[in-house]
Amino acid sequence: MPCPNYRRKRTISKAFRVSPEENERIELLAKAAGVTQQQYIMTKLENKEFTIVPDIRTYKMLRDEMRAVYTELSRLRDCSEMDEFLAAKVDLLAELFIDIAGNAPESPLEQEDNLINAMERR
After folding, report:
1. pTM given for the model
2. Within a domain: residue 72?
3. Is there a contact between 93 and 62 (Cβ–Cβ < 8 Å)?
4. HEC per residue, the chain
5. Tens-place pLDDT, residues 56-111
6. 113 part of a folded domain
7. Cα separation of 107 and 98, whole Å?
8. Residue 95: which domain range?
């Protein structure tokens, strides 16, 4: 018996395994781009880029993700306790926020480095 939707173009399924961290990263990036996970993966496979058009839903999703990261970071007593997945998530969220804002603010450490580099020796 033929499929009820005989005009369907995508008839083949592809499946692959990912770690929980990789799954969370794919979900976050797809949500931020405003597309499905399948669309996100297919676009990346084709070496295309997404343009994130910030809307209220994107801001709320990023805000909620940042709250979760903040909760994790506030539990740490020492930076050496931070696992590499949490550090990667912080970097990813910072990159998404910078992309939406259009420019990266200079961090206090960068400001300090610039002041030191601008000093002249006598």
Report:
1. 0.56
2. yes
3. yes
4. CCCCCCCCCCCCCCCCCCCHHHHHHHHHHHHHHCCCHHHHHHHHHCCCCCCCCCCHHHHHHHHHHHHHHHHHHHHCCCHHHCCHHHHHHHHHHHHHHHHHHCCCCCCHHHHHHHHHHHCCCC
5. 787 788 778 888 877 777 777 666 767 787 778 877 877 777 676 666 566 677 77
6. no
7. 13
8. 20-104
